[in-house]
Amino acid sequence: MTAVAGPPVTDLAPDASPPPTVRRPRPRLRAAAGFALGAALLFAVAPLVLSDFRLSLLAKYLCLAMVAVGIGIAWGRGGLLTLGQGVFFGLGGYAMAMHLKLADAGPGQMPDFMQLYGQLDELPLWWRPFASPWFALPATVLLPMAVAFGLGSLVFRRRVRGAYFAILSQALAAAMVILLVGQQGTTGGTNGLTDIQGFFGYDLDDPVNQRTVYFLIAAVLLALLALARQLVQSRYGELLVAVRDCEERVRFLGYDPATVKLVAYVTAAGMAGLAGALFVPAVGIISPALIGIVPSIEFVIGVAVGGRATLLGPVLGAVAVAWARTALSERFPGTWTYLQGGLFVLVVAFLPGGLASLLARRNGLGPLARLGRRRTEVAG
Amino acid sequence: MTVLFGQLFTGVSIGAVLLLIALGLALTFGQMNVINMAHGEFIMAGAYTTYVLQQTITGAGWSLLVALPVAFVVAGTMGVLLEILLIRRLYARPLDTLLVTWGVSLILQQLARDIFGSPNVQTRAPELLTGNIALPGGLTVANNRLFILALALAAVVALTLALRLTSLGRRIRAVVQNRDLAAVSGIPIARVDRTTFFVGSGLAGLAGVALTLLGPIGPTMGTNLIIDAFLVVVVGGIGQLKGSVIVAFALGVLQATGEYLTTLSVAKVMVFVAIVAFLQWRPQGLFTLRTRSLA
Fold it and tell me: Does domain B2-281 correspond to CATH entry 1.10.3470?
């Protein structure tokens, strides 16, 4: 850290003045209306308008959007640029896929790939608990949260932050992928866990069941959004924004910024884990290529495009970017990479509040959407 | 003994590559607090420069010699362009710089794919650098790795001398220590930043030339190296070079011994755990400049 760090404190004073709009009835009403609209779109309009194929694509995008909700909290609200959400997505995904693979194989049997690469005689010890859904399902969320808690409590307490934290979170993603690829016999290596047939007794090839999975995913996304809104609107949410904008001042006021950040990081990890778990039945595969450094940072771009400091921005941004990727990379694979790079550059450099900040400027939406336009990192 | 020495030397030479990459990062990160993810693509630019030069200059030895300064200038110029066009506007937002430069790196990678094709290309190593040198006791060291080690050490020495003795070096140190005070003392900090970026990116170009001796050249060659190099800077501490030098070699040796004792993948995880543990002890890195800032 050099003495240059961040803007002078006086910079922040004018922005601190508008009182938090927590308990006014109107925003709550508007949120309820928006929630209902979202539910109507996801549950009624989308299944009617979209073909089965498109609907299953949408299910996949909605899983990515769940990760984005978490990043919106950790990065947009808390200023924690986490470049390793793929790790948590992957932990959730692998936990689910391991269970489904074992269920596919039947009791006492081993997943198909293990004989192929591993030449193992029996199931490895650490696979065994995943045979039980009572272990595997909670693990999809709790395992990522535990890893985030471990890393987060270590680094935040020692005030490792800003860019240092971003690099560490990215290094975690790198290490995870190398580990998965290296242990091919028990993890499926580069191929990952593929060819998942059933989901708790339902055949995933059946379009009706695919549709049910979509509904499940949409419902979970809406629930996560409601949770995120509660979190952001609570006193904790205010504190989180305060930590982002001036961590030292929060510390001097008697709070512990490390705990505040840890909660945001662990929450984001749990959401990513849940997203990964639901991604597996929706897409039928989880592999290192879906969770490494590159996908991890791609999670972030959707959030940046939509508007990192807003509630809905990350979701819409993630879906839009994922959709554009599918639409464009099929036809012009090279062009998509240029476009994606350009998106990073243009949005982050020139529109840091994302598309939401354009709307907010027009509607005067108050402090929530405005946050991204201000200098968001102090003392990087 | 022979095996141990071989692993140790491999570790040192991994460290030398990391060091070449990390030196440039330590400069720019230390001075401007900027995370330049496109640094890896400057490495790639240096490597492809070597490749292109070898198409025109047939002698592998000569082309390598020419490639060193040319790659330095090519990568350095790219760095300065990046600084002028984008990074300069983002000094107040270091984390955003990371994302913006990631975007730039995506674009540069695709550009390389379009120009040189997706498959890796290979350069010919000069004959002088293909063999081994036998040391007493049946130990051998590979010439190319020795060359890279020498190159990295030369870069460290040159950089240290430049920072200590030249007026530019004095200015850089002043800006690193206290940017505001340097500015009010009449140091043109914008120009100093640009020069630092040129040198830092140029060093990535040199690393690229060195890497052509070790393996094939591809559009994504920078991505994997850059994270390790950033870890070197984070653990070494910013604002000075000696931390990076020590940590680069330490990480290299740790990686190589870990790989020897277990497997590549387990070694990577071990290194990561070691780094997190180290940061518990020294969260600001091995050496830090004492400043009066809170962070």
Answer: yes
